[in-house]
Amino acid sequence: MSRRTASLPDAYFEALYAGGRDPWQFATSDYERRKYAATLAAIGPARIPRAWEVGCSIGVFTQALAGLCDDLLAVDVADSALEQARARCGGLAQVALQRLRIPDEWPRGQFDLIVFSEVLYYLVADDIRTAAWRSLVSLAPGGRIVLVHWTGPTDYPCTGDEAATLFRDTCGYRLRTVRQDRHDAYRLDVLQADASIS
User: Fold this and answer.
1) In a 10 Å sphere around its CB, with 0-12 CB exposed, 13-18 middle and 19+ buried, how is residue 93 labelled?
2) Distance between CA atoms of 154 and 121, rounded to whole angstroms?
């Protein structure tokens, strides 16, 4: 399978949603349901003052994550996906939805939690490194970054393992890996900043 050599453009995702409202079956897939439950368990039950979900798609995980958050920013590059996310999360006052493309576009402020679920492997290596460096600046002291990625074959610029490892290695000593789980079809990494470092 040949790999794409550029980060996937916004039009790629818009075309997928044009072909079906839920192209990855986020709302109906047993794989997604199990992965979401494992991700929430890895995040833990403690309240999160400010969180950022990158690549929220139609908002299925957003809706679940919102229950742990005082303030949650959820972003995606596809307007058609965000329309569905707004409908799904419309009653959740703590959720803000925004169209944003990483790593070129980036939100202001710091976050106690940043979630990259099934998104980094759409980027080429240089863009993943940039996202990692920008995440370090955006992470509050003691904050966590959660990486979740499919580990099966794709034609994306990176595999799930390559994307997660590259992100983690770019952060180096600035973040420590506090959890790394491998499941049948995906991996889950939790990285944490020292509470004393801003």
Assistant:
1) exposed
2) 9
pLDDT at 42: 96
Longest Cα separation, the chain: 48
Whole-angstrom distance, CA of residue 19 vs CA of residue 144: 35
Cis peptide before 45 (omega within 30 of 0): no
What is the C-alpha separation between 170 and 154, in angstroms, rounded? Answer: 23
Distance CA 195, CA 187 (A): 25
pLDDT score of 198 more than 70: no
Model confidence at 197: pLDDT above 90: no
* Structural domains in the chain plus CATH codes: 10-193 (3.40.50.150)
pLDDT of residue 23: 78
Which one-letter DSSP state was computed for residue 67?
A: G
Q: Which helix (H) or strand (E) holds 128?
A: helix 125-138
Please state the pTM of the whole predicted model: 0.95
Q: At what angle do helices 125-138 and 160-171 cross, to 10 degrees?
A: 50
Q: Where is pLDDT greater, at 55 or 195?
A: 55
Residue with tokens 């794409």: 4
* CA proximity to 148, closest of 34, 67, 29, 1: 34
Residue 138 parent element (H or E): helix 125-138
- Say whether pLDDT at 196 is over 50: yes
